[in-house]
Amino acid sequence: MTPLTRVALTCVPDCASAWLRFGRSLWEDAPEDRSRCVYFPPGAVFARVEHGGDGRQRLAVLRAAGPGERVVCLPGIAPGAQLLLHATTASKTAQALSAIAAIEAQRIPPEEVSEDYWRVLHQRLVAGAALPVYTAAEHAAATLRRSLLS
């Protein structure tokens, strides 16, 4: 049996909430009225956004890890995942969400974007540098590279 990565999502009005920004889960369940869990297979890329009642926002773009791969332990994600991008302030989260929207405007599913792009975007956010643009040509090259490696 392939281990799955479980991602907890919540919605509590005027309090903390966490939701999935993008990603294709295998299945989901709703253990409680205001929460649900989604499950991803190894290699799946997804983004989780957290919003605190105090206006604090965080965005994480993650890759579900397979057996034996190193993971980062984050609250609400079990057993953990590989961190591709992590925005921890409201302004950096907004910048990252804008980059995701720009990708979607090109009709590119964000979960299919090159993992290297997410890492570069993270480093640019941390450095306060201009954010890279993900182009259709770059996506085509990444898709071809992925198909040759599999």
Automatic annotation (TrEMBL):
InterPro entries: DUF2840 (IPR021263). It comes from the Bacteria. Pfam families: DUF2840. This is DUF2840 domain-containing protein. It comes from Pseudoxanthomonas putridarboris.
